[in-house]
Amino acid sequence: MRVVLCGVGGVGRNVTRLLRARPDYRVAAACSRNPALVGRDIGELAGVPPLGVAVSGDLDTALREPADLLLVATTSFLSQVAGDVRRGIERGLNVITTAEEAAFPWIIDAELAGQLDELARARGVSVIGVGLNPGFIFDALLLTASGIAWDVRAIRIGRVVDVSRFSAAIQRRLGIGFTAERFAAGVEAGSITGHVGFPQSFHLAARCLGVRIERIESGFEPLIADRPHDGENLRVEPGTTAGFVQRYRAICGGRPWMSAEFVAHVDPPAAGYEAADSIHVDGYNTLNLAIDPGCQPQLGTAAMIANVMPRLAEARPGYLTVADLALPHARPTTDAFT
Ligand SMILES: NC(=O)c1ccc[n+]([C@@H]2O[C@H](COP(=O)([O-])OP(=O)(O)OC[C@H]3O[C@@H](n4cnc5c(N)ncnc54)[C@H](OP(=O)(O)O)[C@@H]3O)[C@@H](O)[C@H]2O)c1
After folding, report:
1. In what order do the strands lie in the sheet with 69-72?
2. Cβ(79) to ligand 1 under 6 A?
3. What is the pLDDT of residue 337?
4. For residue 213, what are the domain limits?
5. In this structure, is residue 331 part of a structural domain?
6. CATH assignment at residue 231
7. Ligand 1 in contact with 9 (CB < 6 A)?
8. Are 250 and 320 in the same domain?
9. pLDDT per residue as tens digits for the range 204-225
């Protein structure tokens, strides 16, 4: 499978590392809007030997290479990835994007999602928004766990994640490194979003489990550092946000049906948390699933993307969700990743 990368940040580089170790996969081309990255070899950027693929400055150049799949890993927002997704479809490629909003795009812009679906069907290709979250923990894994449930009365999900290795741009957009006042102002202005994607996971679960969501309630609180944190991409000063807590609740039939508590921090133990994931499915045969330590964000995301690739190739054409795919699982690799 020949893959074109649109965006060569953390996701693009980790996917490159993993695909290099998969015998039947290769990065065919890559592009970035960042001039400092243009001309660089994608292998070298990813910390592996050169792959002979220079990063180009625009997607059209990258799409001239013969390929099977386009990975768009640039932003979290449907409106910002839609143009690149569309170009991949028009070129006849299957498309994966990590934009969280694209995991269930119908609740963001139903018309745009419908257009992309129609175009993908016309071209006979498949499109999906997928990653670790949304994509796996609160989606594929939750729905797989529900496979042994007789009924589902309520769902509670929890995630504590170490965000210290995210790029500085992503950490700032999440809400790291601000005074409480600037955090509140950024949330109000929409420049600080926290983690994006809870409504997407909720709506996918609701659609699969036959439930209608009436409304979604949310809360977003900063966690202020009492000492400095020197991350590899961002330094957090005392008195500024080193993390945050987000709470989401989907109300169905007048009562909470699905709820999430999400803690992101540059050093979770410093705030009294340990990185962990949990899924609780309440019903006749109640199920508690605990993942300890929690899914590692960078490695888990790259693996999910790589393992979805063959499933997307065999899926029906159109705009899909992870619930439309056969089970994504690991594949043979030639590298021990020491
Ligand atoms: N669903 C999931 O589970 C999941 C998992 C991981 C990541 N994501 C999302 O995927 C996106 C990429 O993640 P990442 O860790 O690779 O981020 P990253 O390390 O910040 O890299 C993103 C790259 O895309 C470029 N970029 C940013 N905005 C762009 C735009 N509007 N158009 C074109 N290029 C743009 C950046 O360019 P500059 O260098 O010029 O800024 C950077 O090179 C993020 O939005 C992240 O939230 C989702």
Report:
1. 55-56, 26-31, 2-6, 69-72, 94-97, 126-129, 318-320
2. no
3. 83
4. 136-294
5. no
6. 3.30.360
7. yes
8. no
9. 999 999 999 999 999 999 999 9
